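Quick board copy: two proteins, each given as sequence then tokens.
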Amino acid sequence: MKNFKLLLAAAVVFGAGSAFTTAKVKTAEQVYVDVDGIRTPIEQADGKCELGGPYCQYTLDGDTPVPRDSNSHFESN
């Protein structure tokens, strides 16, 4: 019984420690573009920003897009 308690305590400590090491560190806000109406991280988008339009790049505040630029739009390759 004592071994079981020690094993259980070790599992709890290990689990709590793992929760902090796997938490994603937010170093910068993710930048998105709209590709054919689909919100896509800019790193995964195949295309570029062109002049004309409300904005090309944006971040998100919850589900609300926050423009990072103006007078441009995204053109897929």
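And the next:
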Amino acid sequence: MSVLDNFEQWKDFLAERLEQAQQQGLTRQVITDVAYQIGDYLAKHVDPKNPEERVLADLWSVADEKEQHALANMMVKLVQQK
């Protein structure tokens, strides 16, 4: 089973990667930029596996680049709350 199959597992996975990035001293801006790159890759190459991912993919597809960066930033904030 892939971490993309279950949204809670996906958030846990992202939270772990975020914690590792922070421990390595990456700045908030670098983390948000990486989140944007991941979101862009997923939107272009990975089919959503659950309803939550479908909503994110739909939002990403109608957003301009600034809004996509904001969406990526919100995902970082979401997983930081764990």
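Board note added afterward: The mean pLDDT is 89.
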